[in-house]
Amino acid sequence: MSRFKNEVLHLQSHVKTLRFCTGGLCLIVLGLGAGWWSAPRELTIHVPPDLRSGSTRKWWEIPPESVYAFTFYIFQQLNRWPTDGEEDYNRNLQSLSAYMTPKCRSFFQYDYDQRRRSGELRKRVRGIYEIPGRGYGDDPETRVKVVSDSDWLVTLDINADEYHGAEQVKRALVRYPIKVVRLDVDPELNPFGLALDCYDGAPQRIAIPATSAPASQPTERPLGETS
What's the half-sphere exposure (Cβ side, CA atoms, 13 Å) at 53? Predict the structure, then answer.
């Protein structure tokens, strides 16, 4: 009887071991399932615009050319007033708020309020573009300064044109030193994971030969410059 009793005890012990292993496997499977469920469904990888040559990068690194392209694109959209600056500028601030830090958003909101009160926005049409020969590809080392893995200083040389009705009231060539930071907090609203952090100093007028300047154009302060 003792032999059969020992065999039964041995089988019961083996069953307990199997149950313990099964429970452990279930916990592991649940952990793997939770990890899979919480993993990001989309992953942003920054690829250099020039694809004529290969490029190998860590997925979390943001190349300077991508930072420059982001900065110019958002800044150009912010400065695009197709019909009426009083409405367009404010609408741009609302739609692009995810691409600016809270401090920068407040800065441009203050600039909008000041310009609206002084009558600089009503019925104004505005657009900006790069000065030919002063883009990223012409001098990349001076266009983007890498401060850290999450901070950059971008220099934009911009030509800004403004119209009131059919009359051109402004043409300004301005250098904007813009701070850019990593801000990957809401991929739904900001898939770039970057944000403008406003200016690293006052925007500066760019001197051009007298023959290149349009005649009889009144001068105004650059966007965001508090004179």
Answer: 2
Pick the closest to residue 148 from 102, 197, 100, 188 (CA basis).
197
CB of 128 closer than 8 Å to CB of 76: yes
Cα Dmax for the chain: 116
Q: Where are the beta strands (DSSP E) in the chain?
A: 124-130, 144-148, 151-164, 167-182, 194-199, 204-205
List the structure tokens of 44.
Answer: 């942003």
Q: Are 221 and 198 in contact (CB under 8 A)?
A: no
Please count the structural domains in the chain. Answer: 1
User: How would you classify the pairing of strands 167-182 and 144-148?
Assistant: unpaired
pLDDT, tens digit (0-9, with 9 covering 90-100), for 28-38: 888 888 877 77
Looking up tokens 């925007």 gives 203
Residue 46 lies in a domain: no
pTM for the predicted model, two decimal places: 0.69
Check which CATH number belongs to the domain holding 203 and give it.
3.10.450.230
Range of the domain at 117: 64-210
